[in-house]
């Protein structure tokens, strides 16, 4: 639940258009025809609306940055967590209001910040906030890589088995679709071994051998898996969940419990909370909001009220 008060609702300012980024392939294309309705309902809020055009994820992010730079009064992203992740890079820390329309296979950030699961219902919430001049602040997590690269994320950073599986799946050319991810799971399960991680949580060092490592601003990733079940995107803190020396069979028994968030009671799971998380391990490329992010080592910092949601 979001802990906000009336004082947390700064007005939606600016006379520029509401920029709309839509990913037609999100959710395997099942909401491909949604955009005209989105634009119509947003326009009914009395603001000019400007759809953004992009062919790739990088182009989408660049289009969002350009729209904000050119004076957009708000940004709306229609898609899943990957689309939201790209859009957030443009508005984080700017004060430009943001609205996620959940239309992907994984809509964890939108769900965990209180938006309806139905895309058009979410659009109506966003339109009402635009009409009333209302926003609500939430935290974001800022990653900083060893080379100084900064990226933001809203939901969860995966830095263990799930990140390794994603990296494997992205390297594979066969099979296509969800079967590729399933095959990547089987391959990495066969290779499963704990890795040595060094964590510094608000400066306090921890050495752990682990299979699962997640740093959550929100609770969920992967379409409703509550990997960091107690994470609250308004508390100014990051939740860190570490799954230790799991064997293959144990991991497969525990993994379904992640959907309920009850895995944190397993004796091999440890949970922490910190404002700053420094994380290092050999050979790990992280995934944030389901998107390929930065290689370890990196630092994650909770940034309070970095995003103003149209709610």
In short, what is this structure?
This protein is an alpha+beta fold and 311 residues long. Helix content is 27%, strand content 30%. The two termini are 13 Å apart.
Outline the structure in words.
The chain has 311 residues and is an alpha+beta fold. Helices cover 27% and strands 30% of the residues. The protein has 8 helices and 16 strands. The strands form 3 sheets. The chain has a 6-stranded antiparallel sheet with strand order 6-5-16-13-8-9, covered by helices on one side. A 6-stranded antiparallel sheet has the order 12-11-10-7-14-15. Helix 1 runs parallel beside helix 5, helix 2 packs parallel to helix 3 and helix 6 crosses helix 7. It starts with 17 loop residues before the first strand and ends with a strand. The N terminus is likely disordered.
Task: Tell me the layout of helices and strands.
Layout: E1 18-22, H1 35-43, E2 49-51, H2 57-69, E3 74-79, H3 81-91, E4 98-102, H4 108-112, H5 119-132, E5 136-145, E6 150-153, E7 156-158, H6 161-171, H7 178-190, E8 195-201, E9 204-210, E10 212-216, E11 238-243, H8 248-254, E12 269-274, E13 276-280, E14 285-288, E15 291-295, E16 298-309
Parallel strand pairs: 1-2, 1-3, 3-4
Antiparallel strand pairs: 5-6, 5-16, 7-10, 7-14, 8-9, 8-13, 10-11, 11-12, 13-16, 14-15
Helix pairs in contact: 1-5, 2-3, 6-7
